[in-house]
Amino acid sequence: MTGVGQGQPPGLSEPARRVLAELESQWCQHFLKGRHRRWQVRPLVTRIVALGICATQLEARQCLEELDRAEMLEVAQGVSLSPLLQLNPRIGLAEQRCVQLAESLPVANPDLALTPQQTACWNRALAGGLDGWSLVDQHRLVAGLRALSRALPEGYRLSRYAASARYLLASSKLLDRLPNDLLHAFDIEPKLFCQPDAWLLASMPKAPDSVLLIENPQSYMQAMRVGLDRRIALICSFGYGLSLGEALAGVERVRLVGECELPLTLSELLALPHLTYWGDLDPEGLRIFRRLAGRLPHLRMSALYAPMIDTLERSGGHPLHKVTGKAGQSAGVGWARGVDQECLDDATLQTLAGVPLDSQRQRRWLGYIEPSGGT
To answer: What is the domain extent for residue 324?
Structure first.
């Protein structure tokens, strides 16, 4: 985000600089939403460690103390951030630092002729998804949003991908990627666009009694290769813009496709008594499971998660980073790493597929993600 981490005072240690950059990033995100960001020290310290900024809570507290000494933080008079005291005060960024950050944030160009509501939303988008967009492309996007708004309600007969490509810079993805509040500012309701049919890969025996939902196509193909579909039904999403969660939001629009004739429909499969899910073991992967379980109360995490949990607890897995394809994924409670489902070998699939994860272990891991789906 523009301005974050810039102009830091000299003499700060590198860990303290990283902590300050994280606090500034959070502050800017909240400021653009019209909120003032402050933190309780204990959960903040836990998050700093979970994000890998500091190795220990002691180091995180030392960084906060260093920032306080450098007058980068606002702390109640007489309250000490000494790690020795282990206090849990409420802190914020120093007022002067907040002023500097606010002045560094991008502002919509007046030539765009936006309404006040659109301007506020545009400013937030410039600090996020529209960061780095040229003024020429911003003008083109504004023109497209206005044209799409004028085309409504007839335009809602299009799918959101078609509407996006026809009106927004010939991109089928923009309508999904722009913030809802920005679309609403142009009187566009993304939920009203025509929902296209969804297609899911499926393979199953003639009379399956259990179903395994698989999020990633590579793991679906592995399950097919080892012959799991000869004893249980396998279902997987594929293709741009489709996830199991999106597909299950409208089962009546879903079509199953497979090499052979499929004996059961998706609705019939989802009604079977033994229904398990297998995806990546990271905070977003478990949030996907939780969303699916909201529609399918008898859905359980697959026992295939057990060796993945063992791997994460033993070796730490990988960080949620752009290099691992997890950039922008929100951390869980004290948890910001992952293990991808493709790490399991064929023998493990044959042994554990179709079996639910231990209930106690499932409850424990679901407890590591926040009810809101974010931090």
So the answer is: 207-366
